[in-house]
Amino acid sequence: MANGAFYFGLVRALAESDRPLWSQMSFSAAEENFHTCARHGIAATVFWPGLGYLPVTELVLRRLLPLARDGLDAWQVDPGERDRLLTIIERRCLTARNGATWQADTLHALEDEHHLARPDALRAVLQRYIPLMHANTPVHDWPVD
Fold first, then answer.
1. Over the stretch 30-46, which tens digit does the pLDDT of each residue have?
2. What string of DSSP letters covers 44-109?
3. CB 93 within 8 A of CB 9
4. Are 106 and 46 in contact (CB under 8 A)?
């Protein structure tokens, strides 16, 4: 839900801006950002018009979350719900932890600290993930073991 709120709020704000993003950034810059984010996830550094290159977490915190908030307001989303969902995105940026980092950290902990072989560690990650996905708690609160 947090991802959806962030996406739909951001799309609304960007689409309604006086100067659309696609008129400020080349396709090749957007493509480079896409590939960089695919490779580095939350640790990526991307290009943004007017800001240059910066960590994606900083971009989200400084520029994209306020836009998403404005877009959700334009959709008339309840402010309490808006803030609850966007705070999850904010906490991911502040902690540099999302579902992918939790999975990788948990896998490495199981391999390194518990000396599990990769297939056993992968099974153990899945076993830990299943109850957490239904717990309705943000991933930055999930234990790494």
1. 999 999 999 999 999 99
2. -EEEETTTEEEEHHHHIIIIIHHHHHHHHHHTT--HHHHHHHHHHHHHHHHHT--HHHHHHHHHHH
3. no
4. no
